[in-house]
Amino acid sequence: MLISPVVLTSPEGENVLNELIDRFQAADSTCRQSVTEILEAVKNSKDEAVLSYGRKFDAPNLTVEHLQVSSEELQKAYELVDDEFLDTLGRAIERIQTFHEREMEDSWLQTREDGTIVGRLVRPVDSAGLYVPGGKGGSTPLVSSVLMNGIPAGIAGVNQRVMVTPPAEDGSVSPHLLVAAQEIGITEIYKAGSAWAIAALAYGTETIPKADVIVGPGNQYVTEAKRQVSGMVRIDMIAGPSEVLIVADKTASAASVAADMLAQAEHDPLALAILVTTHEPLAGLVLAELERQLPQLSRQEIARTSLEDRGVMLIAKDLEEAIEVANGIAIEHLELMIEDPWAQLPHIRHAGAIFLGSNTPEAAGDYFAGPNHVLPTMGTARFASALGVETFLKKSSIISYSKGALAADGEHIMRLARLEGLSAHANSVAVRLGK
Fold first, then answer.
1. Annotated catalytic residue, options 224, 289, 332, 362
2. What are the domain boundaries of the chain?
């Protein structure tokens, strides 16, 4: 049996739930020292190190002259994609752009009668680095990563958006990636992958500019590199394996539930697919559907391993219990395949993205619906949000006092400063007030 269903209230069910709630894991430590060495090499040797790693692991003939994608390569890319792709790409861009435009924040001011002005100034960072994985040597280009990371940065007003992606063995980059980048206004693209690409964005090289924010998915080396440079630059998040939790009642289609569990499982052997159902017979029907659909998949072995090793089916006594379990797990993708999903939406406290109704597969959110697919994993949806325009914005406080306002507040400011033992702070007010 792929997955053994368990009742939530049983001892086994309680153990499974506790493990799910406590599933956070730090970045893979097995590559930590290797990544540290790569970061140090790029910091010190810059282009030379980036090219050395690139030649060793990606394109043996990579040269500094070809480290940046040329204008000729950018133009040629349009000749290598078809009109159907361009049509789909344009529609996806429009959806993602329209959604994220609502996220843009405005600067604001508050004025007081005594002449004090306070507020917040919202400004974009100067530069953003977008990491896009190679996708099996360019054969499975992750176009959605270009859009989901690049569009919010553009809306934020980031002046310099730089994309890095590992080249194929012949030094080329997928034309689908190049076209997608150009369609959202990104033309500065470099052929660098893995930890050395993150290092180049963090420290800057003779060719690749330094970024203030680094975003984008990747393998354990990319994730560890982002973790190590975090603090010096902003990163989107430390992401764990992708995950879905489906809450289903008796109205749910077993075929749809199984299809969505498989869609999650095919990502990675460590992907997490969970079903919480209030209708016990559904679990058996879903298991049968999983076995029926698995042989049809191109990545069936990955999906099978994921379900056998990490798949979960929990039987809840009622919808209230199922929703509370979902809140406790704080999943990346939460699907509500129930009779009235909108009635339960007010009760959802923790989820990266919420998919309502049986006609809303997670894949719609991954590619086309509009909201961002870069989401918190491993339970971090308790406090973290999806990547968005705000990822590329910073806020500065604005403070302006009139002479009268400082006179009115001065004693209070000095009192708190002296209480903290900071006499110079107090004196900076006193000298202005002639005290």
1. 332
2. 6-25+240-369, 29-235, 403-433
Q: 153 Cβ partners below 8 Å, 6+ apart?
A: 128, 130, 161, 213, 215, 391, 392
| Chain segment 7-66, per-residue pLDDT in tens | 999 999 999 999 999 999 876 778 999 999 999 999 999 999 999 999 999 999 999 999
pLDDT value, residue 172: 96
pLDDT in tens, 153-166: 999 999 999 999 99
Which pTM does this prediction carry? 0.94
pLDDT at 266: 96
Give Cβ neighbours of residue 178 (< 8 Å, ≥ 6 apart): 69, 73, 74, 77, 189
Give yes or no: 280 in active site: no
CB 336 within 8 A of CB 245: no
pLDDT number for residue 27: 65
**29-235: CATH architecture:** 3-Layer(aba) Sandwich (3.40)
Domain boundaries 6-25+240-369, corresponding CATH code: 3.40.50.1980
Annotation marks residue 333 as catalytic: yes
Residue numbers of the chain with a pLDDT score lower than 50: none
6-25+240-369 against 29-235: fold identical: yes
Q: Which residues of 166-193 are buried (b: 16+ CB within 10 A; e: fewer)?
A: bbbeebbbbbbbbbbbbbbebebbbbbb
Name 250's Cβ contacts closer than 8 Å, sequence gap at least 6. Answer: 278, 279, 282
Catalytic residue among 333, 335, 350, 373: 333
